[in-house]
Design a protein that fits this description.
Length: 318
Amino acid sequence: MIAIPHKAKQFLLVLVKVLIVGLAFFYIYQHLQADKAISIESIIQYLSIKEVLILLLFTIANWFFEVLKWRNLVGSFKKISFFEATQQTFGSLTASIFTPNRIGEYGAKMLYFKPENSKRIVLLNFIHNGSQMLVTTLFGVFGFLLLTFSKTETMFWIGIKLNFISIILFLIILTIAILILIFFREIEIYGFSIQKIIDKIRKLDRTILLKTFSFSMFRYLIFSTQFLVLLLFFEVDIEISIALATIFTMYLLASILPSIHLMDVAIKGSVALFLFSKLGVEDWKILTITSLMWLFNLVLPVILGSYFVIRFKPKTAE
């Protein structure tokens, strides 16, 4: 095996860092250039400095619980500081925004730990993301039910249709999951099997799992409320209960569609347009709101994460 000189390794690491940050900002720039929904005039008209600060507080709270969730899970085998958890959370976000469904986050977080902990980090990150998906599903189903029993006739029929589609999808996914559990439970892929994953999750402290679920729920309620607040800021005339039901439904539908995380705004924007347009909400307002959510909850964290990526130093085995 050819040994790579230390200086060459350092140069390659710097090159990879610059490439990751460069790609992240290129994608953001490309989206901002293509997004005709973001009108500076309309934003200035509806958002004062006070309201921008309120939105920033929601963003800080959102990512505060995301960092807490990761620190809590890593604490199952190693104590890390809040700052270390922040570095790992935002650094891995920046490295994964141009990978499908944030798959790059798994590899990025592994680099913050010694190689012998790689499998454990993959499992913890799976629980980390899985808990958020579970909360999204629970609230999404609740949103479906609210729409179904809504007094608004249009939303009633949307709720019926979405419930029908969701039931069919649920039955298909449940059937596939049962078949996998029956026939492929013991099959290992890269050292992982369904049975091993289940066994390892069972071994985790229940308090850690409960905290993980709680942090996921707090985070979900925060960014859902942030979306609702933006609807109010843009003077959208809509009942709070219907608005929340539609937001919950939007997040569930958007989460089950495969996408590159950076393009998440396009997915959420199209789903939001489909749902809110039935309530008579102007298209430009919904597109502007989804774009602002993207700016506050992805672009700003990526800017912070870029700093951590540049300062990143990989762990080595002892």
